[in-house]
Fold these 2 entries.
Entry 1:
Amino acid sequence: MKELTKRTISGGLYAGLLISTIYYSPLGFYLIVGLFSSLALWEFQRLINVNNVLFIFTFLILLFASYLELIPFWGNNVLLILSLIGCGISSQLMFNQNKKIENLPFKYSLIFCYLVCSCLFIPKLMGKPSDPKVSYLMIFYLGTWTNNSFAYLFGKRFGKTKLFPSISPKKSWEGYIGGMVATLVLLYFVNYFHHFLGLHWITLGLLIPFFATFGDFVQSSYKRRANVKDSGSLLPGHGGFYDRMDSVIFTAPFYYLFLKLIDYVP
């Protein structure tokens, strides 16, 4: 089976499962995010030579507390700050491939801040199907998927100018621009028909491709350090769950922060 066909089938099943639970079963969505994120968390630990299930249990406990709305306002802010710090440290490591990741406390901090905290913000906008929060959550997913899909297609067809060849030699500026334009077009029509984004559709149309691409590069840098092609093999055409979720994991806290800045979330 061709690579694109495998990517389409597995990606379609993955997306369909998420979308159906978003609209029909909030608890199911939390459970799916919990399962997928736990697998991604385990794969990430393997990349940096850590084997500790405590982080998965910690994530699931915090996710359950989030679902029950037991995390206080200040606790949510602390988790957001730690997530942004984790993304920042991962970005710094991406630009400094010669820096060794050997210190165990540093590895533990990286796992908790970058993976555990960031994954918690994926379902943070989850609500009932009648809740407008669902629309922002769908925009988050659809925007990320649209960007990644069209960046792949445009890059494969027109890509000539390498974007960051030392980390991911297949990604190009042509692919990045194609993904960004496709995301802007998507959000333009979403706003045209539903009118709940205002001019924020432009900001989101630029923000999502930037952080989604950056998250992909961060994940590629960790794989390059581990000298592996994929983080796992559970998803045909995509590799592992960390491969499939890299953009979502990295983008989620920044997307949430943006909504916080425009006073949509507390």
Note: The CA atoms of residues 103 and 184 lie 42 Å apart.
Entry 2:
Amino acid sequence: MNIAQVVQFIASGAWLLVIGLVVLTVTRSSRGQAVKGFSSFVVIALLVAIALSTAGAGLVFIEPDEMAVVITAGQGGIRPDPLTAGMHWVIPFVERVEIYSILRQTYTMSAVGTEGQVAGDDSIQVRTKDGQQVYIDASVIYAVDPNKAVDLYRTWRKDYENGLVRPQSRGVIRDVSSQYGVEEIVTGKRAEMEQQITDQLTAIFSKNNLILQDFVLRNIRFSDEYATAVEQKQIAEQQAQQAKFVVESKKQEAEQARQVAQGAADAAVTAAKGAAEARVIEAEADAKARVLQAEAEAKALELVANVLKENPTLLQYQYITKLSPNVQIMLVPSNAPFILPQLQLAAPQ
């Protein structure tokens, strides 16, 4: 409760006091009782009530989120400057104020009856460039221009919402949307369309002493026939995409199988080459070993031959040492040459 309301409340109490004193005075007078003192109280209470009522009628408190236009008997019927937030004085019973909110206000037009200012389906019906019927839900966020509140009162009073905001918004939305095809509205040009509507409404509101804060394109709906056609088209596109995916999947599987087969063939070739190279290496090593063995045997035979050449009886000695120690008599064929000299075979003396 602000000061002006407090003063008005006290003034109302003063008038009740005046009425009570008057009733009491009349009652005492009808009974023949003295009323001289009461008459003075009545006059004083009446003067106080008049003063408080005058003060209460002249005091105006403007909230921080408000401003007021003063309607007066002079100055062309309206003060040139509006009243801003705070306490102000106007001439009682000669001037009055019209208060405007300077907060942002939202006007919504929607198919959902509980969302908008108008009950029921209040969406905007639009015929697109290609002849399709669409339904648009939108919200217009605006505010009163504080510097033009007096002009707003002169042109629209307080009916600017129904007289300006609603019809201009619906008209601009229809005009701009009709310049686009339904596919353009749904896809890439929706933002462009929304920006055009915003620009046009900004200019219109500015000329009519309002400030457009924002325009929101809430939703776009289609007719049932078009929605069904779009759904069927999307299903067909999804099926085509699915078929394409299956083909690509089969291609990938075939490519994977080819790569696996190629890898197996390459592995087999590599293994065969490795085995062949291993056999070649093994054969070469075996040949070298045989050559070395042959060379060693030849060298050994050469050494043996050289030793026998220098010691011819060494072979006989080796023969005798290899005989079994149990052999006492050895028979040889008559026609065979003696292996041992006769002198060595003679009986001991």
Note: The longest strand covers residues 210-222.
